[in-house]
Amino acid sequence: MLTTGSQLKAARALAGMTQTELANLARLNVSTIAEMEARAGETLRSSLETVRAVQTVLEAAGVEFLNGESPGVRLRTKG
After folding, report:
1. How many CB atoms lie within 10 A of CB 30?
2. How many other CB atoms are found less than 10 A from the CB of residue 8?
3. Which residues lie across from 76 on neighbouring strands?
4. Domains recognised in the chain with CATH numbers
5. Other C-beta atoms lying within 10 Å of the C-beta of residue 43
6. Which residues have C-beta within 8 Å of that of residue 17, sequence separation ≥ 6?
7. Which pTM does this prediction carry?
8. What is the pLDDT of residues 34-69, one digit of tens each?
9. What is the per-residue pLDDT for 78?
10. For 66, phi and psi rounded to 5 degrees?
11. Mean of the pLDDT values across residues 16-23?
């Protein structure tokens, strides 16, 4: 599950998307993505609906969200 701004920023980078591209695909305003990323290591305060929209787009691009000791991301392996 997407939980922090830093995790979002890393996921977006792995997916090779700009904030604008992600916002358009998630049907959100680019300022929403920027505000989420600005939270850095803090827990996101966006609505569950917003977080799910962003997470769904990034997962479709091959990103996996990791939530062990600290939140992380990786690209899904092909195979």
Report:
1. 14
2. 28
3. none
4. 5-75 (1.10.260.40)
5. 9
6. 25, 58, 61
7. 0.93
8. 999 999 999 999 999 999 999 999 999 999 999 878
9. 73
10. -110, 135
11. 98
